[in-house]
Amino acid sequence: MILSISWKNVWRNKTRSLVVVISLVLGIFGGIMALGIMQGWLAQRVHDGIYKEVSHAQIHNPQFMLNEELQHTIINYDKVVAVLDTMKGVVAYSQRVKVFSMVQSDWAATGLVIKGIDPDKEKTVTEIYQTLVEGEYFGGNHKIPSIIIGSKAAESLKLLNYQVTKEKIDSINTDIFPQVLIEKLKRIGDKRFRKDKDFRLALKEALSPEEFEVHSESLIKYFSFYRMNTSLRITIQDKNGVIQNPVFKVRGIYKTSNSMYDGMFAFVDRKQLNQYTELNDNEIHEIAIISNDNESGAKVGDKLAEYIPENSTMSWIKLSPEIAMFNEFSAIMGYIYVGIILFALAFGIINTMMMSVLERFKELGMLMAIGMNRFKVFGMIMLESVFLSLTGGLLGMLISGIVVSVLSRTGINFGMWAEGLEAIGYSSMIYPIVTITNYISIAILVVITGMVASIWPARRALKLNPAEALRTE
Amino acid sequence: MNVIELKNVEKVYNDSEIKVHAVRGVDLTFEQGEFTAIVGPSGSGKTTLLNMLGGLDKPTSGEIIIGGTKVSELKGSKLIDFRLHNIGFVFQSYNLIPVLSAKENVEFIMEMQGVPSKQRYLRAKELLESVGLGDRLDSRPNKLSGGQQQRVAVARALASKPKFILADEPTANLDTKSTENLLDIMEKLNHDAGMTFIFSTHDQRVVNKAHRVILLEDGVVTSDERQTPHQ
Ligand SMILES: Nc1ncnc2c1ncn2[C@@H]1O[C@H](COP(=O)(O)OP(=O)(O)OP(=O)(O)O)[C@@H](O)[C@H]1O
Ligand SMILES: [Mg+2]
């Protein structure tokens, strides 16, 4: 009966309770969204880190780990492959040759790590083939071999150009860019700019300061393009220490969420690369392994280290401690946020409960007079507070649940800040994640908040003297 | 048999700047089945005396013994439990829990006593019928008249099977008809079930119904007489 009394007592002053409930709904909603975005972000970072960069485990010659030189290939390669082919938990693996190179375009040069891969095998391990923004992933028959580089490297090599072409002017969206602006753009002419800086300058001259302010970023994006099929001259040392200068043509440009990675690695077909490195087909620098999931991936890494001790095997946890940390602490930040919100809301609950207790002094005095003991009075008030906070909390969770389930499919675009985010390895599309465990933990936090917030008002109630409370004025 | 004994009970309120000697050296006994009115001018100490009888307030000196228990020496949860099991209360107002129906209000005290739910329900129904509210079991207090609310309070007081019922000015907020009605019900319960009632009042017509009238003046019992109830 105390349960029912408490529940009904909560709704005696509907307006007052609703104010608290609504503030809880908003607070919990905000907290869960923040938690969901945080977790979505980090989960994506972990996923990208594993499926685009380090994989679940990697095998190297221990010498190669210290000094990445061409001759430090994997020891007992045939045995390693046999182990990988039979071991449970190994879903796919990809053998790579890794060489450091100087890469030159006609306009600039940069240092890149070139990964010689089996294009089809690599597909089963990394998602690089899904991240092409331009060109294709190793297809077709070409006399000059193909190289796939990252968008950042393309910029460094001045392959990202800008040009106000006639086709682009014709297909411009006049809803977004006014006709006057288009006329002004035509004045720039069909000239090619190799630097973002130069094109920006040209735009600034052609447009009024306001137009430039509003449209420059989108115009720069719109008129930019990658110069494909450009020849790159690559400088590497072969197995015998002889300098080689092969030429590859850019036939694909990829863009992951990590621009540092995009500036560092390029991919070529291993067989074509080996024509210049003089390496044999069984001379491999790196084997990347994918397992069923992150957890079994870590186990596979540890097992392999036992089976092939002559090589160095590392799981993703060791390969990228940063990602492992994200994986581990992803929820904690969110919970801290929810905790701070609940802490603030607790004052609203305390205030409401206090008012409700003071208002009911005579009634509480009567209850204590007829024999309701302190324990029950305390319990009744605590229950009221828990009901009040749980109503707001559950409602807030319900709404967040619906919103999160929609956003987890559509994603939230943080494009505005994307450049900064991508530089530190985040993608600009975020798919919030809130787990059942999250909801349960938050519900428990809400109940605890309700309980703690009731202590002070309940103590105040217990201090009252029934004889005094009942004296009618 | 003596149900209640007061021995040289004194009450001095010390908490404000002026000392108030509210009850001075009262010696009284009440027996099973009495129907007693406590009367006296305002400020004479009626409420103070009833509160001490009900264990809501402590005498400054002297002792109060109910059914062999020294109530004036009980403390904390023992005292609350004693009240729950031995004393029925009817106050002038704020008697009922507003969010509960008449029936639930009566059941609530039995629930605190640990009476099983089936029994609770039957007894609440029976008691409300006996105070003439058999058709208002599910009404909330705010849907009942003042007189009906006081009758629910009487039913609630009876529900706990107390040794006696204390009522401090139970009719103060009632009109003539409701006053008469409530007194009739109390009298009937006293007559039929032998329930002991001690009540305070300012109303001469209520005093007339009592079997015993105690006059309190300035904290002192100045008269204590038995009478035949009359109109
Ligand atoms: N808590 C208190 N502190 C100080 N004095 C008090 C307190 N309670 C009551 N008194 C005083 O004690 C005296 C007796 O009061 P009490 O309420 O018992 O009188 P009463 O006979 O019930 O009066 P009424 O008929 O108006 O209800 C009064 O002078 C009153 O002012
Ligand atoms: Mg009084």
Explain how this protein is built:
The complex is a heterodimer of chains A (473) and B (231). Chain A is α+β, with helices and mostly antiparallel strands. Chain A folds into 3 domains: 196 residues, no CATH class; 167 residues, no CATH class; 67 residues, no CATH class. Helix content of chain A is 57%, strand content 17%. In chain A, the strands form 3 sheets. In chain A, strands 2-3-12-5-11-9 form a 6-stranded mixed barrel. In chain A, a hairpin with a 4-residue loop joins strand 2 and strand 3. Chain A starts with a helix and ends with a helix. Chain B has 231 residues and is of the alpha/beta class. In chain B, 47% of the residues are buried. At the A-B interface, helix 1, helix 16, helix 17 and helix 20 of A face helix 2 and helix 3 of B. The complex binds adenosine-5'-triphosphate (ATP) and magnesium ion. The site of magnesium ion has 3 residues of chain B, from helix 1.
Task: Describe, in short, the structure shown.
By secondary structure, chain A is α+β, with helices and mostly antiparallel strands.
pLDDT < 50 runs, ≥5 residues of chain A: none
Measured between the Cα atoms of the first and last residue of chain B, the distance is 29 Å
The average pLDDT score of chain B comes to 93
Spatial arrangement of strands, main beta sheet of chain A: 2-3-12-5-11-9
Main sheet makeup of chain B: 6 strands, mixed
Q: Detail the poorly predicted runs of chain B.
A: none
Could you spell the SSE succession of chain B in H and E letters?
EEEHEEHEHHHEHEHEE
Largest interface chains and counts: A-B, 24 and 31 residues
Q: Which ions, cofactors or small ligands are bound in this entry?
A: adenosine-5'-triphosphate, magnesium ion
Number of helices of chain A: 20
Shape of chain B: globular
Q: Total helix count of chain B?
A: 7
Basic shape of chain A: elongated
> What is the strand tally of chain B?
10
- C-alpha-based Rg of chain A, rounded: 32 Å
Taking the alpha carbons of the first and last residues of chain A, their distance comes to 31 Å
In terms of quaternary structure, the protein is heterodimer
